[in-house]
Every structure is written in C-alpha cells, then in structure tokens.
Design goal:
Strand content: over 45%
Radius of gyration: 16 Å
Helix content: under 10%
CATH architecture: 7 Propeller
Distance between the termini: 60 Å
Order of helices and strands: EEEEEEEEHEEE
Structural class: mainly beta
Oligomer: single chain
CATH superfamily: YVTN repeat-like/Quinoprotein amine dehydrogenase
Mean pLDDT: 83
CATH class: Mainly Beta
Number of strands: 11
C-alpha cells in the first residue's frame, strides 16, 4: 500500500543510475536503482523529518534533517560521510532546502521559519594518487 506521504523529495544521480528519495514521516533516505530495485535505506537520529535533498554534479548526496542538521550521505545511500552543519555549530534551525553551487563552491541552506539563507563555503580537497613500482 502506498501512503500519500511516502515520498517527499527525490533526486537523481548525475549518471542517472540511482534515485534518492526522502520520506519525511518515515525518517529515512531510500536509494533505488533506475529500474526501481531497492538498493539501500539510510536512517539516522539526525535525519528526523528530512526535508531538503540535493545531489551535486559530482554525485554527493546532501540531505537535511528538518530540525537541526545537514548531512552528506555516501553515493551508495548507506552511510553518513559528514555532518555539514548543525544548530550548535552553525545556527541551522529547521533547514528546509539544501543546494550545492559549483559556481561558488558553496552549500546553500534555506530555513523554514527564518528569513535568512545560510551559505557555507566548501573547501576544495585535492587527492594525489602516487603509484610506486619496485
């Protein structure tokens, strides 16, 4: 049986092979394959009433718990990679939407009961791979 509140937001991976769905009243992030096959379910106490969802051009999954948190979840949809913003550290309260701007390298968070839009500058990380041959 499909509930009318089962799907609140959805986003597609840049390659189109994964669909991410947040279910606000079930407090979870679902990851489905293109054909609808269930791949993963992610739950976390910080994901209470998730509302905002965004997949960056690089495939990073950003989701905000409606109360006080913005998270980065792995592309597979199974694990938290980072807590990007919180009430205590960053003043996030009732985050309603999240978006990553590759133009400004910023995460933009809209809040439900606040006229302020929070902008967090993202530092770029460069990973250098060195292969050695003996």
């Amino acid at each position: 049986m499909l509930l009318c509140f089962a799907v609140d937001k959805c986003a597609v991976s840049p390659t189109g092979d994964r669909l991410y769905i947040i279910s606000r009243y079930q407090h979870k992030l679902l990851t489905l394959a293109r054909d609808g096959t269930h791949l993963a379910t992610y739950t976390d106490p910080a994901l209470e009433y998730p509302h905002g969802l965004h997949v960056t051009p690089a495939g990073q999954v950003l989701v905000c718990g409606r109360v006080t948190t913005v998270l980065q979840v792995g592309w597979e949809g199974q694990s938290k990679l980072a807590t990007l913003a919180t009430l205590e550290r960053d003043g996030v309260w009732l985050p309603w939407s999240v978006y990553y701007s590759s133009t400004t390298s910023s995460i933009i968070v809209g809040q439900c009961l606040d006229d302020n839009i929070l902008v967090f500058r993202v530092e770029q990380c460069v990973h250098v791979c060195i292969s050695c041959s003996n």
